[in-house]
Design a protein that fits this description.
6 copies of one chain form a homohexamer. With about 130 residues, chain A is mainly alpha-helical. The first copy, chain A, has helices at about 5-10, 15-40, 45-55, 65-75, 80-90, 95-110, 115-134. In chain A, helix 4 (about 65-75) runs antiparallel to helix 5 and helix 4 (about 65-75) runs parallel beside helix 6.
Chain lengths: ~130, ~130, ~130, ~130, ~130, ~130
């Protein structure tokens, strides 16, 4: 799961460079495959995806709370790509690292130690997002 | 799952009476069985349960947000009793019905239509909590 | 889960009467709680539920195949109420008992022996649907 | 899930009587529905069920260890009926209450607090099995 | 998950070449590890695997419907390798892209947006299978 | 998931070398990310991780049985990294290959054929552990 290349970039202090690659790869693959899927014109899938966007819009609950709800749900269901997506959005919305780890804590307590490996990957991606910004 | 007795009490307009019974039954069973479990003095279980309480304490995120995180996690994992517990806490903390249904919406979108039956039971329990108060 | 009343009705050969009660209770509760939920006007939930109906409409795959897809998905996810719903629809569409048990077999093999208790409840409900018709 | 009748029997100190009913109801329903399912002669289901029995036979691991493996797997997958089945078998094989709670602890840590409601029901059923014997 | 090498092969229009690699790698790893596992002569595992093959044989339901049942079950349970296996079989049986996306739609609606990342990988693999043929 | 490099190392008979790399990579990534996570000083996560260690300590059940309980739970929940961790510990404790495959069998029967891909990866990692030792 972690290539030699990735490991060595971490050890050589080229973390930011590597990190950007990680976020970029995730976003690129996501965009490319979404295009493939949407090109097939399945109405149910198209509408579900629109609805997905609406779900996290400002409402009686603010946008930040909703992203954290989506994140914790993704964590206990152990969906790494869903986690990455919500980590990205949460970072854009200004969630702090301390707040993020409280979300991680809820996910670990509710979902148990099987959530730990996903927490490791979430922590890795979060570091990248935070370090990218600086 | 719904006894004739329960159905008829609903139809006869004795809703509040029935509702209190539903919350009371849940809390009574929970308390009674927790006592049985804790009486066995298994250290790991005791500490996990203490930790569970700590998880939802005020921190970088406020108590209300944390309860909603616990709730949405319980909904996508489809744990009816966990849902009831967090509905009770959320109600005490003043979550509005509109906010609650936005949490339900996130759970239904992330977890899919298999969350619907749990949403029905959550909605039933929420009605009871809200009606009890009045 | 099985009340004394239910057991004795089975033993007294009043199976059909009891069975109708089982299907009726499921449908009544479902209808009543759906009304409660939809009355709150949460747009995401409303749209998701509409989409749910569209998903099973005739398309490149026929309606019967789609119901069986919904059923097997509900079985491996172990959602008893979702199973009951798709059993009802499948019965209306003329699925035979032999076909139904081949769906049960796929669910048991893919999902493992934890699907067995749900298969028992599915078999019980299916008997009721089949006996009701005669 | 807990009828008034059940609650009052507990309060009146008629616990043992009630307990036997709980185990008996579970076994009766299981037997009755297994007969319905096997009467349909689906070969895959029949063979899977045979295989299920073989899985827990004495081998490189002893029977008791295998039952506990089946139990902890059932707990983290949150299958109450599977849990009851393995609790019954484990009790027959002489597992002590202290050992049982160590299995519960593993299940709660690996699977998280969503396993707690299933632990409550497991603890209730275990009490019944233990009290029945005396 | 997507290496630079893979990305660049896609961008260079060497899609078919890459695609074959993806299917081939999956099948090779599967074959090699199955051999390792079966060489250990665990009877339960051997029989379960035989049974798995029987499950998808022609019966009261045709082979194509059964493959789609296996596929949708694998999608909602989010098992990427199981999905690939059933995609391969479905492709051999002549399932059309339009039909395939209706299966994807059922999986996404029943299982929720956590199924989307698995749908992306399924769509990628399906493209490869379809393009390989031409 | 399996890089060309990995495949060729297998084919060239450099299995032991590759195998060590696999275990080492897993342990290195795990250690590095645990450090990141623990450096954030989230009390709930820290305590949960301590508790996790306590869970597998000698008690009324011996350490080996407890590791196997953790392993089978990880297998049915399909957590590859959790599986690897418990495989490593089980190997240290002297679990034999025959015993290990009986645990795999329980996991496959309880959790169904969706556990098979995880069994393949478990078998691969187990081979590495066993071959490393010699």
């Amino acid at each position: 799961m972690v290539s030699d290349e990735r490991l060595s970039s971490l050890h050589l202090g080229t973390k930011n460079l590597y990190m950007s690659t990680m976020v970029k790869e995730f976003n690129d693959y996501r965009t490319r495959m979404n295009e493939v899927i949407l090109s097939k014109d399945n109405l149910v899938i198209k509408r579900l995806w629109n609805l997905d966007t609406n779900t996290y819009a400002e409402g009686a609950l603010d946008v930040k709370t909703k992203e954290l709800l989506g994140l914790v749900a993704s964590m206990v269901l152990r969906c790494d790509d869903c986690i990455k997506y919500h980590l990205g959005k949460s970072h854009e919305l200004g969630v702090s690292t301390e707040q993020m780890y409280e979300v991680f804590a809820v996910a670990n307590i509710v979902g148990g130690t099987i959530v730990i490996p996903h927490t490791r990957r979430a922590a890795e991606y979060w570091e990248e997002l935070v370090n990218d910004k600086n």
